[in-house]
Design brief:
The protein has one domain. Helix content is 67%, strand content 4%. It is built from five helices and two strands. Strand 1 and strand 2 form a beta hairpin. Helix 1 packs antiparallel against helix 3 and helix 3 runs antiparallel to helix 4. The longest helix has 47 residues. The two termini are 26 Å apart. It is found in: Membrane. It is a multi-pass membrane protein. Keywords: Membrane, Transmembrane, Transmembrane helix. Belongs to the L6 tetraspanin family.
Length: 201
């Protein structure tokens, strides 16, 4: 009972994190609330992974919803034995938790790469990746950010939003790992009880 309640809380947390990730992804697509840069393809290439990240986040939302359903005590039994039914549901939970781990890991990697690369912006030399060769060192040197003339404050915009995405994705990875560990322990316990039961009888 306690593990189901805990699993339900974790699934609800995944849904909340996925919804926030979708909002942040959308904001990345419109620096300073302007759509002109997106329509003219003047965004960093990792922001153009938006479709991939958003697809991944939407899938994460679906995975979290499925996990929430699997934690429901009123689920119909999939086989005659109660132990068999529990084992099957636990296996499904492990599979979907692993999928969630893959989706959140993808978002984490892309967000980290986008943060380190820096924005695509207009400098005195034209549109370019002004910080591409700095290996992310520009992040701690705000005096260099003035190189980006347009979009205004794009470095801060990308820094804040990519950092939020990294945090959200990192939390999703942790939650999914916890779920996998919990479900594996449940499966092992069910398997152990099935093995020792004939001996007890």
């Amino acid at each position: 009972m306690g593990s189901r309640k805990c699993g339900g809380y974790l699934s609800g947390l995944l849904i909340l994190l996925a919804l926030w990730s979708i909002i942040v992804n959308i904001l990345l697509y419109f620096p300073n609330g302007q759509a002109s840069y997106a329509s003219s393809h003047k965004l960093t290439n990792y922001v153009w992974f938006f479709e991939g990240i958003c697809f991944s986040v939407v899938n994460m939302l679906i995975v979290a919803a499925v996990l929430l359903v699997l934690e429901n005590e009123n689920n119909p039994k999939c086989c005659q034995s109660e132990n068999c039914s529990k084992k099957y549901m636990t296996l499904l939970s492990i599979i979907f938790s692993a999928l969630g781990l893959a989706f959140s890991g993808y978002c984490l990697v892309i967000s980290a790469l986008g943060l380190v690369q820096g924005p695509y912006c207009r400098t005195l030399n034209g549109w370019e990746y002004a910080f591409e060769g700095t290996a992310g060192r520009f992040l701690t040197d705000s005096s260099t950010w003035i190189q980006c003339l347009e979009p205004a404050h794009v470095v801060e915009w990308n820094l804040i939003l990519f950092s939020i995405l990294i945090t959200l994705s990192g939390l999703q990875v942790i939650v999914c790992l916890i779920r996998v560990v919990i479900q594996l322990s449940k499966m092992l316990c069910v398997t152990y009880s099935v093995i020792i039961q004939p001996g007890v009888i």
